Amino acid sequence: MKERADIHKSIFFGIAGITAILVFVIIGFLIYAAAPVLETSGIGFITNSVWNYDTNQYGIFIFLIDTIIVTALTLALAIPFGLLTAMYLAEWAPAWMEKIIRPIVELLVGIPSVVYGLFGVLILSTVFMDFLNPTVDHLLGFIPIFRNIHPNFHQGLFLSAAILAIMVIPTIVALSQEAMRGVSSEYREASIALGATQWETMRNVILPCAFPGIVTAVVLAMMRAMGETMAIVMLLGNTPIIPSSIFDVGYTMTAKILNDILYYVASPQPRAAIFGIAVVLFFMEMLAVAGVRLICSWAQRRS
């Protein structure tokens, strides 16, 4: 029995080791491929906004800012819907309702991003252009970021963020619901016994206990939104400017990689610059993961 256990342990260790090696191989390949431009440009690769293949000037500041803006707007739309849905499914939904809604939400994960992009281009863009965008502009247009500056555009930041929100809501719902379900029933019963309502129990007991799991869900959704490519290419407009309104166009880092890599893969310096974008994007996501670990550790210490 001991020999069999040692064999199983060795197999598991080997598989884990292979996984870790693959991660380091990918990181090493990205850094190696991007090294020529990162060495010549230095910090200017991030802080400069000029991207010109003819003069070998490579700065991703605009692409970086556009990526952050799209991701932030996506989370602003997705978190309320995802978290409220998870709360309803975890605490208030009847069993038969939960069995209907949960599979429908999870089904959204399996839809290819290009299908989301087509849905946005062919259907949702018309709804936004004819109804939603003018309505927001009419109600909030006195605030610059809500002005409908491109009334005839079928593309834009708001449309892209709405599609991305639909794509990441299942992640928030599934993981947040599991985090809430994981809270001990004794906590719920103690709260109710002290006279708290179900909503007060949710707000003061369940949400604080499930906070690390909810934060993890949000970060994973953020990474999905930050790394999405095809739908963004189809919906954002691919114009290298910093948006002045949520209805403006933009150009994210992933869209730049997809649009340019096939044309410049044979040219050493441009190819290195494109891989440099991937390196920056990868480290942004690493920082996000490190941040969520710090937040979860802080929450656990407080609890």
Task: Map the helices and strands.
Layout: H1 2-41, H2 44-47, E1 51-52, E2 57-58, H3 61-92, H4 95-107, H5 113-140, H6 157-181, H7 185-193, H8 198-227, H9 230-235, H10 253-264, H11 268-302
Antiparallel strand pairs: 1-2
* Radius of gyration, whole Å: 23 Å
Assembly type: single chain
Secondary structure tally: strands:
2
Would you tell me the structural class of the helices and strands?
mainly alpha
**Shape, per Cα inertia axes:** globular
Count of separate DSSP helical elements: 11
The level of helicity is over 70%
Q: Alpha-carbon distance between the termini?
A: 41 Å
Domain count, please report it: 1
Q: Name the CATH class.
A: Mainly Alpha
Q: What's the short version?
A:
With 303 residues, the chain is mostly helical.
Please, could you describe this protein's structure?
This protein has a two-stranded antiparallel ribbon. About 35% of the residues are buried. The chain is mostly helical. The model has no long low-confidence stretch (mean pLDDT about 90). The protein is built from 11 helices and 2 strands; from the N terminus they run ααββααααααααα. The chain has a single domain, classed as MetI-like fold.
